[in-house]
Amino acid sequence: MPNYRYPNEQLILALTVILVLAVIAFTSLATLCGSLLFVAFMLATAYFMNQAHHHALVRGAQLVTAQTQPQLAALVQETAARLKLTDDVQTYVAADRRLNAYTFGLSNPKVIVLYGGLFQIFDKDELQFIIGHEMGHIHFGHTRLNSLLGGMAGIPSPFGAAVILYVAFRWWNRACEYTADRAGLVACGRVEKAISALVKLATGGQARSAYTQQAALEHLERQDEDLTQLFAEALSTHPLIANRIEELRKFAASAEYQNLKAL
User: Fold this and answer.
1) C-alpha closest to that of 139 among 3, 8, 29, 235
2) Is 4 contained in some domain?
3) Alpha-carbon distances, residue 34 vs 44, 45, 148, 154 (angstroms)
4) Is-contact 90 112, C-beta < 8 A?
5) Predicted structure pTM score
6) What DSSP character marks residue 186?
7) Is 218 exposed, middle or buried (0-12, 13-18, 19+ CB in 10 A)?
8) In a domain, 188, yes or no
9) Is 80 a domain residue?
């Protein structure tokens, strides 16, 4: 799979890790030992929670196979092929009418969960963007790193340091979303479909026609000028939809993306 990571993602990751190490360096040796034990505990907890989540999912959702959902299975396979994904991935459909999807897993198989509401609102290309987005998280190691950095960011520390780590971790999360959006665009191959998928997510599926999509998009773009929204974004794992759309448009117009399409 070609490396089309969002340009600042690895830099932000490095800065986040440096901040964590700096916090540890300014603590006493006893606190350091306790912190390392805490990180180990958090990682072990993350692993067992992932396993428990997987087992619960198997009981409450449907595994996508060529036998259970042949069209969706073919779309998942096609998306993985476009992205040249080599990880072992299982896809499940959750009986939930919300518009959502996520991925998890520290070891293979990684798991992608698609909520049932997506299939009522999204067309094939939009759904492929969503699947590609989640596969991007898998390919670029976000699922593993989230567990690791989540444990490190939870190190007991003074309040000010804890706030810095929290904000830095969220900064990296947002960079990961930009990278995953790029994967989604490479998967579906149509920037207008990637944008319409994001608009539908942001509006809960209310914006379906060209007119309502445009109106919703204009409203979302105005949020980028709202200081309250910008502050909320700084504390969120996801960028504002307007910013995600802007970055998608930039990537779609880049020589890097055109070269990827030619592969």
Assistant:
1) 3
2) no
3) 15, 16, 16, 12
4) yes
5) 0.86
6) H
7) exposed
8) yes
9) yes
127-155 as b/e: b if 16+ CB within 10 A: bbbbbbbbbbbbbbebbebbbbbbbbbbb
pLDDT of res. 59: 78
How far apart (Å, rounded) are the C-alpha atoms in residues 201 and 217? 12
Count structural domains, the chain. 1
Please give the pLDDT value at position 149: 66
Question: For residues 263 and 252, what is the distance between their CA atoms, to the nearest angstrom?
Answer: 15
Residue 2 lies in a domain: no
Of the candidates 90, 93, 104, 114, the residue with the CA atom closest to the CA atom of residue 47 = 104
CB 220 within 8 A of CB 242: yes
pLDDT at 177: 97
Which mean pLDDT values do the consecutive 10-residue runs of the chain (263 residues) have? Answer: 81 82 60 62 69 74 96 98 94 93 87 95 98 97 77 57 79 95 97 96 86 87 80 91 96 93 73
Domain range enclosing 152: 9-262
